[in-house]
Each structure stands twice: as structure tokens, then as C-alpha cells.
Write a structure and sequence with these properties.
The complex is a heterodimer of chains A (252) and B (226). Chain A starts with a strand and ends in a 5-residue tail after the last helix. Chain A has ten helices and ten strands. In chain A, 35% of the residues lie in helices and 27% in strands. In chain A, helix 4 (118-131) packs across helix 6 (151-163). Chain A has 252 residues and is of the alpha/beta class. Chain B has seven helices and no strands. In chain B, helix 3 (74-102) runs antiparallel to helix 7. The chains are: A alpha/beta (252), B mainly alpha (226).
Chain lengths: 252, 226
């Protein structure tokens, strides 16, 4: 399935008087990795957070326009935000495991969704850890605190935790920016594996990472999308001079 | 990183331009050695080919370093790819200048025959194309590059006409078979110079317009391949 998964039309977002996103309209395809690039403060993380309504928690935020996921406007007043965030998981820049065991971290989502049976939870934890390519490293220490793992392992436990509730979309906000090259490579390999069943949207400041992992790429500047195209095209023949200048390190 | 990359690209362009000037001079001297029967000039061309080869290696290494250290994209990436391809063409053109010089000795005393079969006309045209090839890179001039591609067709046509003139000479006079055989090799070399200059023109179009047009002779009606 590679048809449009997320449809965004005329999206505007204001933090009080600050117009942070300006008339953003793009379609994001399913089972693809879409990267969002741009200098700090350009609106890419704000945009990412609109996709699972995380900006709702911020005071004075005004959001206008449409964001449809599978044809459903996620800002419709009938939408259950908890269900939305189950469907649209998120991984942050800094790994944020709960101060609990590895098992409890991964089992957290299914547990709060009402799953109690231990054997079912064990099955989900193993499956999620395998999907997050962390199982072999934690299978003998499931009861150890997740805080004791390395940064790269913690981040993959967080991915396993997100996968445990079976999301359809995974939002990743600079998921490897604090990791060493080997851990980064593991996360990137994992993304390739996950996109077979998931749609991934990733914010990254690392141009090479955007070029390596993503199928499509959106370049944000001052709240606007300057260019949105296949990544291979953007990094070989950008249409816009601003894109050319940004991706080649001439500003930002 | 940006300033570092800019400086590296400027230095790379300068090396290509210097190599281009050297190769152009080698071609000029090679052709003069032929028409003037000047074997000293021919020796100079042969001995200076080492300088061309040194540029070839320097440019290859420079491109490798820029790739490894800066991971260039978009225009910068195309510039380095073009530099690599142009470097290769210039190096081959240097070798061809040597091949032409090597014909000076066996064709000593046959300058009138060379003119009769229009080799002077062909070499004049090709020298112009070579100059234009280097200029279109120096000035990033895609329009000039397109003109070169069309001029190469003229050289190919002239090549065929000269072939007929040479074979006629050989048929008419058995004593002309050996010098004419050398001229056949010579015109093949001169024609190849035009082909390499055309390759440079195609690289410049790739650099400026991001279009890959090689293997086509019709730059205005090309479908864009990316």
C-alpha cells in the first residue's frame, strides 16, 4: 500500500501572534519514510506535532486547516485524541524510558489499554522488541531498569514501546541526534524494516540521514514548505535555490 | 563547512582550467608540428604529456577528497562528477595530441597532401571546438555546449569526405598508400578530439541543467533523463 496516508491542506498554526506554520499543504504516502528538514525554528517539529495533536497541550495555540489521516479529519471534535495517539506513535530526540523495567516500559501501552493477561503481554513485549531490533540485547534483562541501558538501546526500547500499541504511523523527532554512528545505523536499519508496515515521518537536522533513509523530503523555511519531492530528486536536482543552498550547507 | 567546500570547488575548477589550457596547447603544437614538419615541436608534445597525466591524478585525488570530506549534493555534486568526467576526457585528448605528434615524422614533406585532403580544414574546426569545450566549462555556458554538440556532427561529415579524398589519392598513386595510411590514422585521432570536446559539452549541460544528454546528438529535442 503506497497511497496517500496523510493529507494536509492549508494548515496554519499560530502560537499566540507567532504564525508558525503557513499554508502547509502536502500528502504523505503510506509505507514510506518522509523526512522534514530545515533550519532550527522553521516549523518542522511543530508540523510533526500537529500529526498527533501534541500541540493541543500548548496554551494559545491556534490551528487552522485540515489534517486527514485515512480520510478522517484528526481535528474533528469527535476524534478521541488517545485513540489518535495510539494510531500515531511518537519517538523523541532524547530517549525517555519510564523509570521502570524494560518489560514494563514496553508493556505499558497495552496494559493501559486494558490488556492484563501475562502471557499476552509477554507475547507483545517480545514481538515489539523484535520489531525494534532490541530483543537479543534485552531478552535476558527484561526485569532490569530501562534507565540502565545505553542511549541507543533506550531509544530502541522507546520504539518498542511505541510499537506495542500497533501504530500505523510513527513520528520521529530527531531520533538519532544524540546517538553514536553505530546506534544511528541500527535506528536507520530499523526504519527501513518498519516502513513495510508503517508510515514514518521523521524530523532530522542531518542532511545525510535525510538523504539515506527517506523516500520523500519536505524542506521547511520560516513556517512554509519551500520544496517537497522525492528525496533522490531533492538531493540531486532541487527546484528551488533556497533548497539548494540549505542542503549544501550554505545557510541554516 | 560551506566556506571549506566553496574553496575546494574553486580550487578544483582552477585545476581543470589549467589542465584544459595545457591540453589545448598540446593539441595546437601537435597540429603545428604536423603542418610545419617540425619534429622538435612533436618531441615537446610527447615529453609534456607527463604534465597532463599529473593533472589527471591530482584532479582524481581532489575529487575523492571532496567526496569523502563534504558529501556534496545537488549542484556541488554535479560539479565534482563533471570534473571527474572532464578530467578523463582531457587526459585522453592529451594522449591524442601525442598520437598526432607521432605522425609528424612519417608525414614529413607531405604538408601539401595534408592540405589537399582538407586535414587543415578539419584540424582548424576541431581546435575551435576544443577551445569552445573548455570555454563552456569555464563560463558554465550550456548554450555554447549545445553548439559544440551540433558542430561535432559537421566534423563527422568532414571526416567522411576526407576519407573519400584519401582513398582516391591511394587509388590514383600507389606511392601515396603509405602516407595516406598515416593520414587515415591521423584524421581518426582528430575526429576523436572533437568527440571528447563534445563529451565535455555534455558534462557542462549535466552540470548546469542536470540533464543527462549523452548518446544523443540533438540537445534541443532531448527528453530529460534523470
Amino acid at each position: 500500500m503506497t497511497q496517500e496516508k496523510i493529507h494536509i491542506k492549508d494548515l496554519n498554526l499560530y502560537y499566540g501572534t507567532n504564525h508558525a506554520l503557513k499554508n502547509v499543504s502536502i500528502d504523505i504516502k503510506g509505507n514510506r519514510i518522509t523526512s522534514l528538514i530545515g533550519p532550527s525554528g522553521c516549523g518542522k517539529s511543530t508540523f510533526l506535532r500537529t500529526l498527533n495533536r501534541l500541540n493541543d497541550t500548548i496554551d494559545n495555540v491556534i490551528i487552522q486547516g485540515d489534517i486527514n489521516i485515512d480520510g478522517q479529519n484528526i481535528y474533528d471534535k469527535n476524534v478521541d485524541v488517545v485513540s489518535l495517539r495510539k494510531k500515531v506513535g511518537m519517538i523523541f530526540q532524547k530517549s525517555n524510558p519510564f523509570p521502570k523495567s524494560v518489560f514494563e516500559n514496553v508493556a505499558y501501552g497495552p496494559r493501559i489499554n486494558g490488556m492484563k493477561k501475562k502471557s499476552e503481554l509477554e507475547e507483545i513485549v517480545e514481538r515489539s522488541c523484535r520489531r525494534a531490533a532490541i530483543w537479543d540485547e534485552v531478552k535476558d534483562r527484561l526485569n532490569d531498569s530501562a534507565i540502565g541501558l545505553s542511549g541507543g538501546q533506550q531509544q530502541r526500547v522507546c520504539i518498542a514501546r511505541a510499537l506495542a500499541v500497533d501504530p500505523e504511523i510513527l513520528l520521529m523527532d530527531e531520533p538519532a541526534s544524540a546517538l553514536d554512528p553505530i546506534s544511528t545505523a541500527k535506528i536507520e536499519d530499523l526504519m527501513f524494516e518498519l516502513k513495510k508496515n508503517l508510515t514514518i515521518v521523521i524530523v532530522t537536522h542531518n542532511m545525510q540521514q535525510a538523504a539515506r533513509v527517506s523516500d520523500n523530503c519536505a524542506f521547511f523555511l520560516m513556517g512554509e514548505i519551500i520544496e517537497y519531492s522525492a528525496t533522490a530528486r531533492m538531493f540531486t536536482k532541487p527546484e528551488n535555490e533556497k533548497t539548494q543552498n540549505y542542503i549544501s550547507g550554505r545557510f541554516g | 563547512m560551506y566556506h571549506y567546500l566553496e574553496e575546494e570547488l574553486e580550487q578544483l575548477k582552477t585545476k581543470i582550467i589549467k589542465m584544459g589550457s595545457l591540453v589545448e596547447e598540446q593539441i595546437e603544437l601537435a597540429i603545428r608540428s604536423l603542418f610545419e614538419g617540425n619534429l622538435d615541436l612533436a618531441k615537446t608534445v610527447i615529453s609534456r604529456d607527463d604534465e597532463v597525466d599529473k593533472y589527471d591524478i591530482k584532479i582524481d585525488k581532489h575529487c575523492q577528497r571532496i567526496f569523502a570530506l563534504t558529501q556534496p549534493v545537488a549542484f556541488d555534486l554535479r560539479l565534482i562528477m563533471s570534473a571527474l568526467m572532464i578530467n578523463s576526457d582531457l587526459e585522453r585528448m592529451g594522449d591524442i595530441a601525442v598520437n598526432i605528434s607521432e605522425r609528424a615524422a612519417p608525414l614529413l614533406g607531405y604538408s601539401e597532401l595534408l592540405k589537399k585532403v582538407r586535414v587543415d580544414e578539419m584540424s582548424g574546426k576541431v581546435k575551435k571546438i576544443v577551445r569552445m569545450g573548455i570555454d563552456c566549462f569555464v563560463n558554465s555556458d550550456a548554450e555554447l555546449a549545445k553548439k559544440i554538440i551540433l558542430m561535432d556532427v559537421e566534423v563527422d561529415n568532414l571526416d567522411k569526405q576526407i576519407f573519400d579524398l584519401i582513398t582516391l589519392e591511394m587509388r590514383n598513386d600507389n606511392n601515396m598508400i603509405i602516407p595516406c595510411s598515416h593520414i587515415l590514422t591521423l584524421i581518426r585521432n582528430i575526429e576523436r578530439l572533437s568527440d571528447h570536446a563534445t563529451n565535455i559539452a555534455e558534462d557542462v549541460i549535466f552540470l548546469i541543467d542536470a540533464k543527462i544528454i549523452k548518446h544523443s546528438k540533438d540537445p534541443d529535442n532531448l527528453k530529460q533523463k534523470e
